[in-house]
What does this fold into?
Amino acid sequence: MNDKPKKQQKLKARLPRGFVDREASDIRAVNEMTGKIREVYERYGFDPVETPLFEYTDALGKFLPDADRPNEGVFSLQDDDEQWMSLRYDLTAPLARHVAENFQQIQLPYRTYRAGYVFRNEKPGPGRFRQFMQFDADTVGAAGVQADAEMCMMMADTLEALGIRRGDYVIRVNNRKVLDGVMEAIGLGGDDKAGHRLNVLRAIDKLDKFGPEGVKLLLGPGRKDESGDFTKGAGLNDEQIGKVLFFVGIKDYAASAGELAQLLEGTSKGQEGVDELNTIGALVTSAGYDAGRIKIDPSVVRGLEYYTGPVYEAELTFDVTNEKGEKVVFGSVGGGGRYDGLVSRFMGQPVPATGFSIGVSRLMTALKNLGKLGADEVVAPVVVCVMDRDVESLGRYQKMVQQLRHANIRAEMYQGNPKNFGNQLKYADRRGSPLAIIQGGDERAQGIVQIKDLIEGKRLSGEITDNVAWREARVAQVSVAETDLVAKVREMLADQAEDRKRQS
It folds into this structure.
């Protein structure tokens, strides 16, 4: 009988599907971008607020795109008091709960912004993740469409603050009241037709993706994609489809005003929505935002069901190459609209609200395409090498590191095995360090340190072929008094920065 204990199975390290680990460059790019967004929001008088990742499931509501059940599409767990909680799927529903819960203490209109992760329990795919970041701004308690116009102007200013030029973006604006008027005009008004209306709106929302012919199929019998998968259509007849396609196909809003008024004649909300769009157009024009920046566009349909008035979308209009090698317009990086019913669910009284959300990862991809992120590259730390391991020597090395840090210079003392000095320089090289600080016993006796320019040293080793060129090149290693260490490091880093600037 073999009593030998079984070897314990090694735990397999694995990342959950639909999630990603974020590296330093990605984190810094996001911080750079969100910092610029925050500056614009603050300039408009908005203040930050933060809500938790978890909310009670019933507070989130049935507002997920393409979901028919409250729990579908969200990650949920049961608390010890048997109440269901879910990870938030956007930042708007939690804000509605926050406002309702603190309504007596909040100053209305409540102007706020927040950034954070949201979670979707959906099948992951290329570019489709279960955790991603959004950056929202909202005004709660302002009923007039001037609040919606301001949101559109703030979106435009935000994109420009991030370096996106005029002509490379447009804020497109529509109104759900006009859409509802069109639905009423084709016989889909009333509460009993809500599900049918939603199918029509989802079909319209695919206009950018499938074009008018694809949407026509989705409005009618259905559409089969390239893989053979069939999507059932909304089942409209030809006359209904014609009216819907006319509306979403309007390119010149002013020129089509007469036909639109005729289509919406007799509807309860359609003309009200047109008036609101006209007001938004007048306000943004008065403030200096022409149709090249903020445009009335009836093809805009936001996917979430809770929008009640103006809806808007920020679209980047420049071309990028997709995974198939095709040139395509980059498309939407954020959007939002008026959601007057969301806070009211908790209050039993009308509470108007409007806001928009930026998809941080998608916008970051766009900025990288334009070369607008990472311009201020973070310089790797200066490495102080360890030549002697006695406590006194380590104390001197640590003092050097702290002097550099207190001068706002990134620095670290080598923490690996110091026996092999070559390994220390290899570490610094792999780290991308600009400089290495070296002080052995001889240097210590003289009160000096050696500063090795690792960037210049690498260049010299690859380019210098004779002694004359070597003598004419910038010196790759210098000796300085310990007291001059910080000043010399700062000078050498400045020289390197100048070199990078010239090369770019």
Q: What stands out?
A: Residues 269 and 437 are 73 Å apart (CA to CA).
